[in-house]
Records
---
Amino acid sequence: MTNELIPDDDLLLRISDAFDRDLPPVPGRLSSVASEAFQWRRADVALAELLFDSAQEDLVGIRGTSTERRSFRYAAGDAVVRVHLTAATMIVMVEPPLSVTCRVESGAGDGSTKEHRTDELGELAVDAPAFPLRVEFDLPGGTYTTPWITG
């Protein structure tokens, strides 16, 4: 084992391979330690707390549609950030409404990052980036990022 850092692309491939296998659930303590370790990787960016993931919850009152949608809600300091993904579109909403800079990093292929700005209502709609992806926000209380969204 070496002390060299693993490039992000290699790390994402290793993580993706791990998800292809049936593994036992991650213990809560291990998840907590991993989150704390992430804070040290980029000390200037805080990890947003996942509050809701539509893949983990039964959506009551939602009719099936031909378009599959995935929704997330994150706590980021004093703000709540919602991310809605379809095959064609990504919608971001910041509450309370704030015009903030956000960067969408796509881990696919070249690992591109695109910078956007929410409107005065805290909303942004862009073409859906390729998976895996994460969204980083410059909020008044600091910079936050979502965990990697893999699909």
---
Amino acid sequence: MLKLAALSLCASLLVAVPAGASRPPDATVPAPVATHPAHDVRLSGAGGGTLSLPGFAGDRVRFRLTASVPPDRPLDVHGRFRVEHVSADGRLLARFSGAFDCLMTGGGVAVATGLITSGSAPGLPGEPEIVGRRIGLTVADRGPHDRLGWSWLVMGFHDVAGCTGIAPFFPVTRGGFAVRGDTDLAEEAR
């Protein structure tokens, strides 16, 4: 419905002017509408570090995240994620990837959700079935002191609601992430 309304608005703003013709200023012609780049809200990067959590101390985690959306349409996301968790002794505990389905940002923090499309968690307790699950990720872009949060730490691999996440509890010690732009839902409220 929102796309249809936007298309109707764009169509109503078109003014037919023959190629090469100029038009004198006219009060009845609407002023140019400011446009945003196609995707100026972004989350990107790769990073991780070593866990100090009980039961996982010394394990290494790595995340690769790339997502972008128009600032006023957080569900129109394009992007993917990849996660790897390896035990301190080198055993693969989990490796999976998927597609983001929502991205919202503000003040250097991104909350993103996505569906796992491939992978497994052979070394995690109970070997959970993870393909098809919606997970949540939160990234705080703090320059060299980025932080991450992931929903399955608290909830296990149970689906989360779209665009929901957990506090970014984990300090990134290798690599880094960039959060650019702020989601602007003011248009929806008008």
